[in-house]
Amino acid sequence: MSAATVTDVPVVIVGAGPTGLSCGIELKRRGVESIILDKGCVVNSIYHYPANMTFFTTPELLEIGGIPMTSINDKPHRTEALKYYRRVAEYFNLAVRQYERVDRVSGGDGAFLVETTRHGTDPQAYRARKVILATGYYDIPNLLHVPGENLPKVLHYYQEAHPYYDHDVLVVGAKNSAAIAALELFWTGARVTLVHRGDRISDSVKYWIKPNIENRIKSGEIKGYFNSTVKEIRETEVVLATPEGEVTLRNDFVMALIGYQPDLRFLASVGITLDPATNKPRLNESTFESETPGIYLAGVLVAGMHTNEIFIENGRFHGAQIAADIAAKRGGAAS
Fold this sequence. Notes:
With about 325 residues, this protein is an alpha/beta fold. The protein has eight helices and 17 strands. It has helices spanning about 20-30, 45, 80-90, 175-185, 210-220, 265-270, 310-315, 320-330; strands at about 5-15, 35, 95, 100-110, 110-120, 125-135, 155, 170, 190-195, 225, 230-235, 235-240, 245-250, 255, 275, 280, 295. The strands form four sheets. Strands 1, 2, 3, 4, 5, 6 and 17 form a seven-stranded mixed beta sheet that branches.
């Protein structure tokens, strides 16, 4: 393998979600060039949302860069959002490098080295004065930590119900993702069982979804096990621990939709730790510069483990504050 090709760039942004794109736009407006790296595609998290998902918010609250977002209905659909963010990236001519994973960030403020790999190419490296981490949390699923979780039939993301028609599917979880998946699977003809360690469907489930899933469970159309956990996953079965004792069910697929978390190991590798009092990364709340000088956090990463506090609606504004600080420290000079 050849030595890494090194490119000089003022700022490297890790993560090409709405927040990462917003950071790139705001930097460009201040005369500071950047490269945006993502291990997946543009707005990879939204791409992994359920195929038929409708946002809870209105189009204007998803806008970045001052570019209007239009929608056929009051609330935009996933496909409309994907199209919108592609259009924004193209309009601002952002230097987005898709499917390029950041392996390591070393060096210090003013002289970082960001090392990456991309399938089928030689290693790459970027010398950057500043680094912005806008990686979100959706790429790292919470695990069940039970025997059999590594079987191919166990999935941590749900996109659409069709492939599971006429199959026995266990949905683990009771928040929005799990409730929506369970309903769509049921409507598509899967035999659905939902298991949750709590005693009921989460109160955070969207108001038009919650009574629907509760009624399906009450009627027995979807079998629900509460105060219960998955004990073991087998090729054709699952074993549950329930208040009535151990239960073994016929099973073809397991949807473990129990949430996601930031890449804490990567954050620690660049010197970023969580405040034990708040469980959030230590940072300057005005500039979003982290405890590691020259490294900024944006979007849901700012919330740490409290991922329900930061959404696209408010995370998109982090870019302006970060870009203003970076430009000010460079005297606002063009790159």
